[in-house]
Design a protein that fits this description.
The chain is mostly helical. Helix content is about 70%, strand content about 0%.
Length: about 170
């Protein structure tokens, strides 16, 4: 019994010691899905406004941590149906920033959020600028000014720091 007791520290060290990593055959489907979701989260929104793009990327982080507050914000202040917002957030093709922007753009242009989200899902290869063009939203600062104001108000309600540069 004494011999086993004296081997305990050696066994513990052996179990905790780093071991060589073996090559993996292929990436499991779960990891591929996680990578695709990460790629979507890192994709630039391409709204045509760098300040808005940066905030939309930040919203992805905020929504990952405070999902209910994020959903409540869009439902209450952008008048989007809760089921639509929650459904869109489960879709791998849309990030939280995309959902926010879709509903903000919809509200600013008098469209339903669902219509703007459908346009995004249909083709977003050229970002939000391309979606806005296909929806015949006039490019320019008026829409960006309105959405920037919406974002600023959301950040105030979330008590989230807001970098006002750009």
């Amino acid at each position: 019994m004494r011999a086993i007791t004296s081997l305990a520290p050696i066994l513990a060290i052996a179990l905790l010691a780093p071991r060589p990593t073996l090559a993996q055959e292929a990436t499991p489907p779960v990891q591929e899905a996680e990578r695709d979701a990460t790629d979507a989260a890192q994709r630039q929104p391409q709204t045509g406004n760098a300040w808005i793009d940066a905030r939309l990327l930040d919203m992805n982080d905020y929504a990952a941590r405070y999902r209910e507050a994020f959903v409540d914000e869009i439902v209450r202040y952008h008048e989007a149906p809760r089921a639509l917002v929650e459904d869109a957030l489960r879709d791998d093709a849309t990030t939280p920033g995309d959902v926010y922007y879709a509903c903000a753009l919809a509200q600013a242009t008098g469209r339903p959020c669902r219509a703007v989200l459908d346009a995004w899902r249909g083709d977003h290869a050229d970002g939000w600028q391309g979606v806005a063009e296909r929806l015949d939203v006039a490019p320019g600062t008026a829409i960006h000014r309105r959405i920037r104001g919406d974002i600023t108000e959301s950040y105030v309600r979330w008590a989230r720091p807001l970098d006002s540069s750009n």
